[in-house]
């Protein structure tokens, strides 16, 4: 019987967000609820699977791993792109890659989480909640920051950044925008005012990052950039951890220079002994950005459809049709 691996089900939501019974009637389906320790662990655990259904970029899928999966015939990804997947290696091996098509729910969900992190950091909501649950009230809480009239800097004014821009304008915040390709006209069309990177960092009371991870964006926010931020400013990252120099960020929050509100990290899951887990001036969430019911309701049913279509010999949503 064909074996199907469902990867990266960290919240245990896969089973409840799709009808797996048609696939289970034709294949052995195994759900992986924990991250692999490393590539060798992934290669060992996935060696017997013909179909692998992955979740976004949680498990890296380079050619070095693809080539260690001798039985792999079909790989499913969610959304239309996965920057951690070596599609060429799949094509060279004759492995079909199929994707899911979405309605944009995940884009809005990530921007909504960025807004939530902004509010949580500005009003110290996690610490306030912890105070009440421990029997205290206002004792020891930081004084909150009002956002009306403040300046939000958005690095990347694509779909997600533009969503957040609208939310911040509704809070009566001024919005500055910058990215390597942004023009003043494009910034204005999104509802923001164009600024250079240095101007944005120096003038903003909060900064939110909305860029894809690429060689150009990796390490884009380094120690000098963090030093330009206002004392007490909030840095929000719901994009990818490596866009920010993590060591420099740890130093900045440990020195209580800025507040970091983070959903993404260099390594995920975040190691138990990572200094961010105990750092002051932080609000941390475990990469929840796109993970809402609406997103799961798109990703998992279509992943099942992709696997069934492949088993029927009529694959759909194919990214590398040359394999056919």
**How many strands in all?**
12
Question: What class do helices, strands and sheet pairing give?
Answer: alpha/beta
What is the CATH T-level topology of the largest domain?
Answer: Rossmann fold
Major sheet strand order: 8-7-6-9-10-11-12
* Domain module tally: 2
Succession of helices and strands = EHEHEHEHEHHEHEHEHEHEHEEH
**Beta-strand residue percentage:** 5-15%
**Largest sheet properties:** 7 strands, parallel
Instruction: State the separation between the terminal residues, measured CA to CA.
Output: 23 Å
Q: What does the average pLDDT come to?
A: 96
Let me know the CATH homologous superfamily of the largest domain. Answer: NAD(P)-binding Rossmann-like Domain
- How much helicity do the residues have? 25-40%
CATH architecture of the largest domain: 3-Layer(aba) Sandwich
Overall description:
The protein has 324 residues and is α/β, with parallel strands linked by helices. The chain has twelve helices and twelve strands. Helix content is 34%, strand content 14%. The strands form two sheets. A seven-stranded parallel beta sheet has the order 8-7-6-9-10-11-12, sandwiched between helices. Strands 2-1-3-4-5 form a five-stranded parallel beta sheet, sandwiched between helices. Helix 5 packs across helix 7. The mean pLDDT is 96.
Question: Which features characterize this protein?
Answer:
324 residues; alpha/beta; 2 domains; 34% helix
């Amino acid at each position: 019987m064909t074996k199907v691996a469902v990867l990266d089900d960290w919240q245990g939501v896969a089973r409840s967000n799709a009808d797996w019974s048609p696939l289970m009637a034709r294949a052995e389906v195994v759900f992986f609820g924990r991250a692999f320790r490393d590539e060798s662990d992934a290669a060992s655990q996935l060696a017997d699977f013909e179909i692998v259904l992955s979740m976004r970029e949680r498990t890296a899928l380079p050619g070095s791993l693809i080539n260690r999966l001798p039985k792999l015939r079909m790989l499913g990804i969610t959304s239309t792109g996965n920057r951690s997947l070596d599609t060429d290696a799949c094509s060279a091996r004759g492995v079909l890659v199929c994707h899911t098509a979405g309605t944009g729910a995940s884009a809005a969900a990530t921007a909504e989480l960025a807004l939530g992190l902004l509010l949580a950091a500005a009003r110290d909501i996690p610490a306030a909640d912890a105070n009440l649950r421990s029997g205290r009230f206002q004792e020891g809480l930081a004084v909150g920051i009002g956002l009306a009239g403040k300046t939000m800097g958005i690095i990347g004014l694509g779909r997600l950044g533009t969503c957040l821009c609208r939310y911040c304008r509704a809070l009566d915040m001024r919005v500055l925008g910058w990215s390597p390709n942004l023009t003043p006209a494009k910034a204005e069309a999104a509802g923001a005012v164009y600024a250079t990177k240095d101007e944005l960092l120096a003038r903003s009371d909060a900064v939110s990052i909305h860029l894809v991870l690429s060689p150009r964006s990796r390490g884009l926010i380094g120690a000098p950039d963090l030093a330009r931020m206002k004392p007490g400013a909030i840095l929000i990252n719901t994009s990818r951890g490596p866009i920010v120099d993590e060591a420099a960020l740890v130093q900045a929050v440990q020195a209580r220079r800025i507040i970091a509100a983070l959903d993404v990290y260099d390594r995920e899951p975040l190691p138990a002994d990572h200094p961010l887990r105990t750092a002051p001036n932080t609000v941390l969430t475990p990469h929840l950005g796109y993970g809402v019911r609406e997103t799961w309701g798109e990703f998992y049913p279509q992943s099942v459809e992709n696997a069934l279509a492949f088993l029927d010999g009529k694959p759909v949503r194919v990214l590398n049709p040359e394999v056919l």
